[in-house]
Amino acid sequence: MRVRKTKHEKEYFVCHFRQISDFINSLAVLMCLGPLFLCRKLVVTIHCKMFMVHVHLQGSCIVPWVLFETRKVGTGVANRSHGYFNSLPGLIVGVILRYGTPSTSGHDKPFSCSQEDRPFTTLLVNVSGKFFEYTLKGEISPGKIHNVEQNDMLRKVTFDPEVFFNILLPPIIFHAGYSLKKRHFFRNLGSILAYAFLGTAVSCFIIGNLMYGVVKLMKLVGQLSDKFYYTDCLLFGAIISATDPVTVLAIFNELHADVDLYALLFGESVLNDAVAIVLSSSIVAYQPTGENTHAFDAAAFFKSVGVFLGIFSGSFMMGAVTGVVTFTKLHCFPLLETALFFLMSWSTFLLAEACGFTGVVAVLFCGITQAHYTYNNLSVESRSRTKQLFEVLHFLAENFIFSYMGLALFTFQKHIFSPVFIIGAFIAIFLGRAAHIYPLSFLLNLGRRHKISWNFQHMMMFSGLRGAMAFALAIRDTATYSHQMMFSTTLLIVFFTVWIVGGGTTPMLSWLNIRVGVDPDQDPPPTNDNSERRNRTKQESAWLFRLWYSFDHNYLKPILTHSGPPLTTTLPSWCGLLARCLTSPQVYDNQEQLREEDSDFILNDGDLTVTYGDTTITANGSSGPHTATTSLDGRRTKSSSEEALERDLGAADHEVTSRGTRLVFPLEDNA
Amino acid sequence: MRVRKTKHEKEYFVCHFRQISDFINSLAVLMCLGPLFLCRKLVVTIHCKMFMVHVHLQGSCIVPWVLFETRKVGTGVANRSHGYFNSLPGLIVGVILRYGTPSTSGHDKPFSCSQEDRPFTTLLVNVSGKFFEYTLKGEISPGKIHNVEQNDMLRKVTFDPEVFFNILLPPIIFHAGYSLKKRHFFRNLGSILAYAFLGTAVSCFIIGNLMYGVVKLMKLVGQLSDKFYYTDCLLFGAIISATDPVTVLAIFNELHADVDLYALLFGESVLNDAVAIVLSSSIVAYQPTGENTHAFDAAAFFKSVGVFLGIFSGSFMMGAVTGVVTFTKLHCFPLLETALFFLMSWSTFLLAEACGFTGVVAVLFCGITQAHYTYNNLSVESRSRTKQLFEVLHFLAENFIFSYMGLALFTFQKHIFSPVFIIGAFIAIFLGRAAHIYPLSFLLNLGRRHKISWNFQHMMMFSGLRGAMAFALAIRDTATYSHQMMFSTTLLIVFFTVWIVGGGTTPMLSWLNIRVGVDPDQDPPPTNDNSERRNRTKQESAWLFRLWYSFDHNYLKPILTHSGPPLTTTLPSWCGLLARCLTSPQVYDNQEQLREEDSDFILNDGDLTVTYGDTTITANGSSGPHTATTSLDGRRTKSSSEEALERDLGAADHEVTSRGTRLVFPLEDNA
Predict the structure, then answer these.
(1) What is the mean pLDDT of chain A?
(2) Is this complex's ipTM strictly greater than 0.85?
(3) Mind giving me the DSSP string for A70-117?
(4) pLDDT of B590 strictly over 60
(5) Would you tell me which of A647, B173, B425, B601 could form a disulfide with A615, CB atoms 3.0–4.6 Å apart?
(6) Which residue windows are transmembrane per the record (chains A, B) (predicted)?
């Protein structure tokens, strides 16, 4: 016994030594950034932007890692600490760049070599015998000449705002749409749509009007040095209405908090973003005619509403249409399949942009549609590959944005921090969120069987974090005084909500007595009372959704995918030939297969990963609906959409329970 | 019976209809490209380059798909038809752009607004009242002023040559290095190194000298209108010595051709690329001093050799060092792990570039090292995720390069096609390849027990395809007359070898009587005579490799990874404490696990995928060596590196046999 103890002590020492060496290890990685950063060669070549991207990504990944390795944070926090620690490296680099580099002015005054009526794309300039090539960047309105970046170094580390919209947001939004294939999302479809559309619009108008009041006050006090129109205030409302509760959702996921609340928050935040983007573009499109350019103009207003509806429905249609394009016989080469899948979503983006719609919104709906239809046509290998690919892209893009946000706080040269405006904005977003959540929840509760309780409403109120989308919308246009002030305020709001509100999620959950650490379907237990549960699900599912589901399951899925019942069974008999033509031959094959398989594999649809020492057995089933019924008693005749729905939902449940590590959370006795 | 037949006929019709609809489907996807391409809005905004990338990728992915869907090509060809069909869309787009767009000149003559001694980074130009912003692109030597692109449209579709080197090549090369974890590669290590280093150098000098003869001849005939130095010829030799037999290897893989031949070709082509890059940079570095700037200068020559050795060993060291950085306790968050893994290889690239080494070469060795060490430290989820991520990146990058090559054939504005030079180049690469393969094989056969037979040598001679690397090296510098001629010739050589030689692989294989469609270890059978097989492997493995393997297995792996035997068992007893400190605690854990596991899982290390209807059970084991012996008879005391080596190699074998679809190939009776 004594010997054993000594051995243990020794091993403890060894383990501890290993920990220290791990820490040294991680420090070495961090130090990799040093020489890179100091090397002037990189800063002047093509690598400059690549290098900046790398600094942001590496930094934002390493900080949570180091914090975890040094036992400062727990697994979950390090894993999904969006914005939490990820903005730290950006902040540090920002401070260094701001105060550590000499400010060199890039130009003094404009040349006046006015030659012809058309500008050249390339300019060769002879500077004391040496020739330099210049490329055209764009036209600048005379008023903005002095807004051109002054500092060389800052210029190099600054990214074109369009990069955020065109390169970084699409993977984030697509991934959000792609992961919207959840039972509880559809169960709360109506409420989510109401929160996303009505709620965001209400919030936008309330914040806009309140901010207009603040601006009036500032003008009265004399704190406003330039113009600030009503439309600017509304635009601010639209920008700041895009909520992004990633941190909250990560913690929810971790603690197995109530799934309905999770679905409400996640669904709202996803659709929310789309609404906010389109809302902001239609506000920008609101340009009253006549001499009084900033008063109310009914024609322009209706034009704006038209723009909103047009862009939204156009983007929606485009995303949905390109999303359903089916890849049929590519199972033989999964790599090509994945590449095409990835490129099709990119096509959606470009196509929508080319047609004047919003690419990001189209990509969102493309993701939702692809998750629903195209996913079922992919080979098993491709399914996991695409899912993982988009996960990584999403992770990297989000880390980059948060890290860049930290940088922007210091390196953006036109910050206008107005205390009155900032305080006003905080109050406005609080009131806007309140006016969005409580009245809507009251109205929704009139129609809902499964009411949204008070503590849920408080939690939703609390979870109104602002993130990547608000930042991207705000940085897009920082040309005027008002937009610069809005950008600075947005940055502060994002940091405040992510750092303070995000950090307070866990105390808030326990304070509001929200169920955590429970299986999503603990009551009633999933076995035995199958019929009772089915009834419950039937009641809870949105009425509209059930109607659509049955149409989708019986007609759309068989046409667009290789799963679902053959059309020959769902269509009336008089259109037999048409049904045969439209049904994929693989549907019949799938049916045969299902009949032969063990029913267990049909039921347990989620991702089951059993680690077996070094070898892992992964049972990665599809989440799509199958034609077979539970078949425990051998009956297979009835293949109604109702049962398929039950199974789908059951499968999704299973997925939720089998994922992640369980954490036992100190529960106070609640209900 | 009759009814059944009718049903079958009906189903055939239905199937056929479905095929047609699939084709329409794919046409619809193709048509997606139309509006995008015509939309002027996209061409003038930030999207331009993104859009071009998309056109290339989408096109290069869709062409093989459409050809497969319309039953024009088989599975294997469509799957890995690198450069084969992938250059088609580029060619088409190139023709359209070349002959379909008006040629608008971007500039006439340089401004002479010579002001100060320092050029500005930003230029504001007042063109008849409007202000335009220009950004500095770089200095141009006076001689090259007229080489600046003339056509706006072509300018927009042309990518910076550095993009190929800094963005597209790294994933391709990294993936090549990352997949070099094969039994037969290590068995032929010596030969591969000889082919890659000696062979490439020989080939480079022979091609260089022959081309210098051709150039002399051209000068004599009067076909040369500008300077063409000896160093340019050598550079051409270096550029064109990088072989890239992807198509051949894809077909080998498909047909299960001889694995030793596969290993020789694959290993050679991977290391080859690294040698060619470094060789070309050291030739560029060869700048003789004194008045006669293009005669032989011993000092400059030795400087070049020094540069070669310095860059190569520096890049090698840098790649290897950053490759072994171990991620230890990140198993809890696989996404962060994958992101860091990806970023670490990127760090290697940037770090090497910053230190003046070659990033691409560093990335290659980083990939090899990461596959060997870091891979073992990853969680199971991360392993498949990183593998798949790099596969997709490699696939997309390679497709892009081949598609862009098609475009460059038409849109590159400074093509110089000299028939004499081209014919000379074809003869030179043929002779260079011959002088590289046959004498080296003769010398190697003196030392090899398992001789490289004549038909293997012929096949290697035949497989000297040129691909992405030659293109990237040639496009890097097209400033002078000689470089432009070299670029045009390289393009033609790449197209010829990929289209003609690549297409002739299958006939060539059967003509040369090379074993196809056989399991790599059919003779002797893998079971029963275990000891005999072990002896055979022992003999066949390179002597140097065995020495290194034992060192690596006993000391490096336990220190750097969580696998391998604990150092306490491999190090002499007097350094017990050091051994305990350096061994990861997880090594002991792994040992425990292995002891408890079924030995079958240890032996069958490869990727086993059993499709089970809709559900797939993937047993994705690590290929790293384990401490446990085969343990069929319970003995576990001896954990020698020899046995681990056997098991590793056996596992790799298993992987080869369990992968891919078997194709029965019309074999003529050979041996």
Answers:
(1) 69
(2) no
(3) TTSS-HHHHHT-TTTTTHHHHHHHHHHHHHHS---BS-SS-B----SS
(4) no
(5) B601
(6) 163-180, 192-212, 233-252, 264-286, 307-327, 339-368, 389-410, 416-435, 456-475, 481-502
B83: left (phi over 0), alpha (psi -120 to 50) or beta: left
Chain A interface disruption, residue of B336, B590, B593, B617, most A CBs within 10 A: B336
Q: Which residues of A56-84 are buried (b: 16+ CB within 10 A; e: fewer)?
A: bbbbbbbbbbbbbbeeebebbbbbbbbbb
Task: Give the pLDDT of residue B18.
Answer: 47
- Global pTM reads 0.73
Could you report the per-residue pLDDT of A437-493, keeping only the tens digit for each?
Answer: 999 998 888 877 778 888 888 888 888 888 888 988 898 888 888 888 999 999 999
Distance CA B517, CA B515 (A): 7
A305 contacts chain B (CB < 8 A): no
Contact (Cβ atoms closer than 8 angstroms) between residue A412 and residue A487: yes
Nearest C-alpha in A relative to B596: A613
Q: Is the pLDDT of residue B654 over 70?
A: no
Contact between B246 and B82 (Cβ < 8 Å): yes
Contacts of A345 (CB under 8 A, 6+ apart): A170, A174, A322, A323, A363, A366, A367, A370
Beta bridge partners of B140: A131
Q: Is the pLDDT of residue B207 over 90?
A: yes
Structure tokens at A665: 């959370």
Beta bridge partner(s), residue A105: A151
B124 with A111: Cβ contact below 8 A: yes
Out of A46, A124, A132, closest to residue B107 by CB: A124
**Can you list the alpha helix ranges (DSSP code H) found in B355-480?**
359-369, 375-377, 380-411, 419-447, 454-462, 468-475
* CB distance A18 to B584 below 8 Å: yes
Residue A1: predicted pLDDT: 41
Count of beta carbons in the 10 Å neighbourhood of residue A503: 14
CA Rg value for chain A: 28
A580: which 2 tokens? 């045969």
Q: Alpha-carbon dihedral of residues A349, B342, B174, A21, nearest 10 degrees?
A: 180
pLDDT tier at A81, thresholds 50, 70, 90? low
For an interface test with B, the pick among A616, A622, A627, A663 (most B C-beta atoms closer than 10 Å) comes out as A616
Q: Which of A106, A139, A580 sits opposite B14 (nearest CB)?
A: A580
pLDDT of the residue at A669? 37
What is the pLDDT at residue A210? 93
What was the pLDDT predicted at A415? 85
Residues in chain A: 671
Continuous segment of H or E residues that includes residue B124:
strand B122-127
d(CA A498, CA A80): 12
Interface of A with B in 481-500 (CB under 8 A): none
Partner-chain contact A14 B581, CB within 8 Å = yes
AA identity, residue B317: M
What distance in Å separates residue A419's CA from the closest CA in chain B?
Answer: 34
- Determine the Cα–Cα distance for residues A456 and B447; give it in Å rounded to an integer: 77
Residue A235's closest CA among A214, A207, A194?
Answer: A207
Q: How far apart are CA B539 and CA B537, in angstroms?
A: 5
Question: What's the rounded Cα separation, in Å, for the pair B404 and B157?
Answer: 10
Q: DSSP letters of A602-621? A: HH--SEEEEEETTEEEEEE-
Query: Between the CA of residue A344 and those of A339, A374, B46, B200, B271, what are the distances in Å?
Result: 9, 11, 20, 41, 35
Average pLDDT (B339-353) is: 80
Contacts with B499 (C-beta within 8 Å, 6 or more apart), sequence order: B83, B84
Look at residue B405 and give its three-state secondary structure. helix
User: Is B361 touching A (CB cutoff 8 A)?
Assistant: no
- Residue B87 parent element (H or E): helix B87-100
